[in-house]
Amino acid sequence: MKLSTKLMAATAIVSASAASAVELEVTHWWTSGGEAAAVAKFAEAWNATGNTWVDGAIAGSGGTARPIIISRILGGDPMAATQLNHGRQAEELIEAGLMLDLTDVAEAGNWREIVNPPSLLDSCTLDGRIYCVPVNIHSAQWLWLSHDAYEAAGLDVPTDWNEFVASAPALEAAGTIPLAMGQQGWQQNLAFGAITIAVAGLDDWREVTVNKNADVARGESYAAVFQAAADARELARNSNVQDWNQATNLVITGQAGAQLMGDWAQGEFSVAGAVEGQDYSCLPGLGLNEILDTGGDAFYFPVNDDPEITAAQKELAALLISPEVQVSFNLAKGSLPVRGDIDMSTANGCMQKGLGILADGGILPSGDQSLSADTQTQIEDLMAQFWSSDMPADEAQAKYADIIASAD
User: Fold this and answer.
1) What is the mean pLDDT of each run of 10 residues along the chain (408 residues)?
2) Which helix (H) or strand (E) holds 260?
3) Among 238, 234, 236, 205, which Cα is nearest to 221's?
4) Domain check: are 172 and 114 in the same one?
5) Structural domain harbouring 316
6) In this structure, what CATH number is given to the domain that contains residue 168?
7) What is the pTM of this model?
8) Contact (CB, 8 A) for 306 and 9
């Protein structure tokens, strides 16, 4: 495939230096079926330019991959490009001068005009310079529901979180796991965050997550959140799987009624041939709030001393945000594009719901944009303890409030 006219203009500043074919190693943690299908779109587009994508997939979650990625960069063995999440994960690497400045590429491609919401590019910016290219918008506040599971239980598919909770006894009576949940802290923290917005509301969520208000975290609204999380913990007691995509498979196969998971779950439904509205339903904001956070993924390019590699890195950065690649990648990934100027009319119903919320401005910053990686890790560790034990809700709330009190 040819690069579009817009992409040619955006990469004109670097194409002269990247005249010969270049191999670039790209690290990421997209290894599930749906994720692999999506990242292949990036690789195909890069290989079509005459260059070569050397895939550096790291099995496991971001929590597993990020320390490996960072260790390689600090150890002097950097990859050419790497996935990280929007937010503060690369701050120290940028401050140490280890990440390539992409400001010239961004200015040539008018990223400030096309990236929506602008906060995504703000997360790539430090001291007025741009160091990453955002490639998608992922949101965590989704409830995925199995039509087969509800048909077997003789129930209508719920339309919100409260109806789902009410349906749990009938699901259990039919031998179905009410809530699929992988046994990892980041998954449990994601579920906690989605429940928080639904139960505590947006104002208190902002006070705690954005403003780090520990008094609100200790208050009544968050007491209700932790009790709701404790109730959800019971619904997931028999979900004996580890990885998020294994939990998604429980929903796809009708073994579980629902899963709290980000919109990347759509990639798994797609690979399985499941049809939205027929085989499964998706409820953004758990069906209670027309709101989504704007997390997601960005690519950073570690500094190296080879001008040819540097030129190719900048060419790849421009390619990842080009219109054609944004469409093909995000349709496969189930995420929303970062460009507000492309045609996504072929997206399925779940993506259309997300696009509608994005267009209406119903967006929040993600936890990765508001909290440091250290604070996020502390919260994930707490959630892993809470979900895997009988820790009382009030004890978990007190520990959580202490983390927020010292959050940076």
Assistant:
1) 42 44 96 94 98 95 91 96 86 93 98 93 94 94 97 97 97 98 93 93 92 97 97 96 96 98 92 95 93 89 96 98 96 92 92 91 79 89 95 98 94
2) strand 256-260
3) 205
4) no
5) 5-138+294-361
6) 3.40.190.10
7) 0.82
8) no
